[in-house]
Amino acid sequence: MDNNILFDYLLQLGDNSLVLGHRLSEWCGHGPILEVDMALTNIALDLLGQTRNYFQYAAEVEGKGRTEDDIAMLRDVRDFKNVLLVEQPNEDFAYTITRQFFFDAYHFYFLKELSTSKDEQLSAIAQKSLKEVTYHLKYSSDWVIRLGDGTEKSHHKIQNAVDDLWMYIGELCEESETDKKMSSIGVGVDLNKIRFMVNEKINEVLKESTVRIPETPSKQTGGKNGKHTEHLGFILSELQWMQRTYPNMKW
Amino acid sequence: MKNWPLWEVFIRSKNGLHHKHVGSLHATDAEMAMQNARDVYTRRSEGVSIWVVESKHITASNPEENGELFEPAQDKVYRHPTFYEMPDELEHI
Which domains are seen in chain B, by residue range? Predict the structure, then answer.
């Protein structure tokens, strides 16, 4: 197997978790109630833990003596391979939970498949992460249903969020060159195989939540190839500030 | 959200032990209370089982009645099994 491709694949997976984890961590201390604040930051920590697993492995695969921290802190926007959905701003709780639900629906089926990867390390990471993500999906689905089927105001807010974020969900199961190569050798996930289940899950939950399913296309893509929305630059400037300002600083 | 009912949370720290009250939280229904309890009270592997019960369902003793409820037991030391000689070989008693 080509190590460069495996490295790129690990960045795709790790960057999704890192960027979404960072977004959720922005809620820390600002949650609408204490219980939700803690739930969101718990999910953030799960995602950061997964990021570490992917980046430690990536550093090892790369074999250039870099560490997980170098990979997280010293890459620029174009080197990030996360999907566009995860870098979208928190806006409000309805927005955050919708973004989370769309990603969880994909993440759950993705990890289920990745658990059977021929690469033992990837399969082990997937099995461990799947337990966490099973809970994330339950949590975010429940909230989408509660808000959608709640008051007029909550319904309006979540409908807005679904409408706005809908354009980003196609990218989740869209194959990059790296995805294709990795799935062809049985190491990566065949996204064509999970697309149907992901869409079914999304439709099923939205239906129960009484949210109208948008008819607009969901074709906004680019993240897996390093082409991002303007938001990622702002995330990185905050995330990487310390290491950029005081290079090699440790604490 | 200020009107969300209050729930009491009980956690069993390991199998064989009883559930112990650990605190309270707000939630709109039992399912949300269970998720919130998981997120707020079991982050450091505190438990293997959770009970939640809406606080209004708990009947509490009135502190003003502590006199008649609890004081009568204080001078009845014979209710404690402290008058038996135990052989030295017996442990864990």
Answer: 6-79 (3.10.20.520)
